[in-house]
Amino acid sequence: MGSWILYGLVWLVGLLPLWVLYLFSDLLYFLLYDVARYRRKVVRQNLERSFPEKNLAELVRIERRFYRHFCDIFVETCRMWHMSAKEMRRRCVFLNNEVIQKYFDAGRSVIVVLGHYGNWEWMASYTLWMPKGIDFYTLYKPLNNSVFDTLMYKIRSRFGAMPIPKNDILRKIVECRREGRLFFAAFIGDQTPSRRNLNFWMEFLHQDTPVLIGTEKIACKFDLPVVSLRMRRVRRGYYEVDIKDLSASPKDLPHGELTRMHTQMLERYIREEPELWLWSHRRWKHRRPEKS
Fold it and tell me: Which residues contact 69 (CB under 8 A, 6 or more apart)?
């Protein structure tokens, strides 16, 4: 029952205009940061290890800005449920669409790799900028709570994106190829691998980091071009998304190179605007196994 009550509250909250929701975000920031101190130790440790060259005052400044942005993401995601297509296009503008369009024109489907950077939930609005007749799949890990899972599915599919459980993407790609349908599939590249998938390591933000290599494997297997998205916050409630080519032919790259490319690109974005990344995630909980 409690889950359905929260479902209803999110639906109602999403009816409010963003300027009202940002007042709630300001209150939520105070409650999370100053009262509950939500994951403050995790965030501070992540920042200290990622930016050893910064002093405490600089780290605290990034930390506070991150929490404010984190709270804004929450209300912006709620608002997305009821936002009109016109308002969404005005608030989240995709640039350089020709980078992807050239592949569609050549009859090729495309993979995009991105991180938990900017407001990644609003990335699902790219359907409003795509030509008709092309599927947009957003990969996700189903939530254990079925009510919350339904809630997020409805928000993420608001403008026509098709959320796909990550374990189903291979079947979906094969199905599209068999039926001759073009698609655009979004992969999150900065999730922490499970213990059984600690197969690829590299330096990321000054730390030895395990990185998922599944995006690269799928791109190579099906000969899919890969692009990267970088979301820049113009001002509160307004974003611009740059689309950049990563590789037109990943299968011709050395093993691991595509993974290095998109991870290093994300690191560059984080260094430019660190408060826009998800610092509350325990990204470095694994250690590289000792060689026997």
Answer: 233, 275, 276
Pick from 3, 155, 162: nearest CA to 79:
155
CB of 126 closer than 8 Å to CB of 94: yes
Give me 269's structure tokens: 């974005």
Residue type, 236: R
Residue-by-residue DSSP string for 264-284: HHHHHHHHHSGGGB-TTS-TT
Q: Please give the single-letter amino acid code of residue 180.
A: G
Please give the residue that has the higher pLDDT: either 167 or 204.
Answer: 204
Contact 281, 192 (CB under 8 A): yes
- Which positions ≥6 away from 22 have C-beta within 8 Å? 72, 75, 236, 237
Give pLDDT tens digits for 5-46: 888 888 888 999 999 999 999 999 999 999 999 999 999 999
Q: Cα(100)–Cα(112) distance, rounded to whole angstroms?
A: 9
pTM exceeding the 0.90 threshold for the entire prediction: yes
- Cα separation, 75 vs 158, whole angstroms: 15
d(CA 48, CA 68): 19
Instruction: Tell me the per-residue pLDDT of 121-144, one tens digit each, with 9 for 90 and over.
Output: 999 999 999 988 999 999 988 888
The stretches of 92-140 forming alpha helices (DSSP H) are: 98-105
Q: Which residues of 166-181 are buried (b: 16+ CB within 10 A; e: fewer)?
A: eeebeebbeebeeeee
User: What is the distance between the alpha carbons of residues 123 and 231, in angstroms, rounded to a whole number?
Assistant: 8
What amino acid occupies position 276? L
Residue 100 has pLDDT above 70, yes or no: yes
CA separation (Å) from 270 to 123, 144, 239? 17, 30, 16
Q: What is the mean pLDDT of residues 163-173?
A: 93
Whether residue 292 is predicted with pLDDT greater than 80 in this model: the reply is no
